[in-house]
Amino acid sequence: MSRERIALVLVALAGAAPSMAQSPIAISSTVETGWTSNATDSAAGGADFYVTHSHDMSLTAETGTLLLRGSLSISQTRFATVTFEDDAEVTGAVEAQVALGADAALRLGYAVTQNWAGDDLAIGALVVPVRSTGTEHEYLAEFTLRGIDQQVVVAVTADWALPGDSVLDGLGLPPLRLSPQVGSVAGRVAWERALSSGLAVMTGMEAWFTLIPEADQGSYLRAPADGGRVSAGLRLAEAGWSAEGRGGVDLVRPKGPAAPTRTMPYIALAASVTPMAGVTLALNGETGVELADPVDGVAGRTAALDLGAAWALAPELALSAKLAAQREWGLFDDRLARSVHMAALAARYALPHGFAYRAALTWSRHDDPGEIYDKAGLVLSVQGDL
User: Fold this and answer.
1) CB–CB of 39/82 below 8 Å?
2) Range list of β-strands (E), 291-354
3) pTM
4) d(CA 230, CA 134)
């Protein structure tokens, strides 16, 4: 499971406490089948069919000022022909939320993921199947203080990625680890105040720290770096539209003697508008910093932009479209860069009793150092919630 997925698990756990009318148990399952033009995500990749099934279950208990929630997520992908690309992962997460009076709350969370990933290694014209395992731990502590028209959030997160040994089929080599252990710790302080019903001002500070064992730094050509951000912005909302903008400064400094510090502008924009009933248009863009898996092995500068549209044709039928692009530049070796451009069209039909069908067409172009490839896909899925 990717770090983004783990973060989503913790964010989902952070939702508001359920009302007494809601069930303490929630179950969701999705079965997806599809075709992809590039099953190995590489320039030499071929087409294949696949099936993915994923299942999520959460249990919530509330007593007095204490809310407890736990969740378990399981997913597996199986390919028809390129079976060495099969994946599976299991994530467990727990959260405790305590109300400290009427205006303050403390939240603690933990998630652990075990994954079994299929991949391939291209050695000239030879494609070597690779089977890998890995474990990832994520921790969260967050304190929130609310006033009549303002809110302060202080949060600390930590992540530790522990890749296991990989098996390279057909080479006669013993299992070996192909990537370094990477830990990260981040702190955040955010303040927001409503100036009126449709206008709010925001400001915040962040600090990031990367931890890589010294032995792994030399073996995998990785250098840890620390960084931080100072930003401020405005949020506006009126009938039919909303917009949010932030600006500030990002700083990155690799660990080590005489390491240079890089300073870059930070920009984040988000806007949505409803030009007519049932139609929503959205724009999101942001610059950032990549420290966990940078393209140059030290730190990366990132930029992302996406445009989306959604059209509710009926209460049960919706269409959507999306265009997106993201790029990363090596911050300390600007000769290295990677980018992804993608487009997607989707339709969703909701059925009674929590079931829904979805169909999607996707296309993406990936430009990595030394490799460029395209990927197209057709996806059909059914989801059920209990």
Assistant:
1) yes
2) 300-314, 317-330, 337-350
3) 0.87
4) 34
Place of tokens 């903008």: 245
pLDDT per residue, tens digit, the chain (386 aa), is 444 443 434 444 444 334 434 679 999 999 999 999 999 998 888 999 999 999 999 999 999 899 999 999 999 999 999 999 999 999 999 999 999 988 999 999 999 999 999 998 877 767 889 999 999 999 999 999 999 999 999 999 999 999 999 999 878 789 999 999 999 999 999 999 999 989 999 999 999 999 999 999 999 999 999 999 999 999 999 999 999 999 999 999 998 776 789 999 999 999 999 999 999 999 999 999 999 999 999 999 999 999 999 999 999 999 999 999 999 999 988 899 999 999 999 999 999 888 999 999 999 999 999 899 999 999 999 999 97
- Beta-strand relationship, 25-36 and 371-385: antiparallel
- d(CA 37, CA 44) in angstroms, rounded, equals 11
Cα dihedral 4, 143, 267, 326, rounded to 10, equals 0
